[in-house]
Fold:
Amino acid sequence: MEDKKQLKKSKVIKIDSKKSWEHHISDATIQKYPVVVHFSAFWCVPSIVMNPFFQELASTYQDVLFLTLDVDEVKEIASKMEIKAMPTFLLLSGGTPVDKIVGANPDEIRKRIDHFVHSTRSYESV
Structure:
């Protein structure tokens, strides 16, 4: 129960290693939390511009784990998730990718995350 409280307090968590990625994905899978990942790069202006929006989403969707990952810092995960452009937003359920949004399109990202969150809640209550 304490872990769930901790997740609710957290905003966006920066992933800086494969170990960190595996830890957070494993925890979210065990606790049945949906995950949204912002794959970015420090040199990519659209990625940087999306950071405040991503923080806002993390505050809005309290029961979702929001992660951010610089593709140049954790290349192995970016490659494994087949990230080819930044920004890319990956939605995971049970550790498995279920949707991918490429590009800085706040309206589309919000719409897809909203649908994703509602569909995972529906699925969990069945």
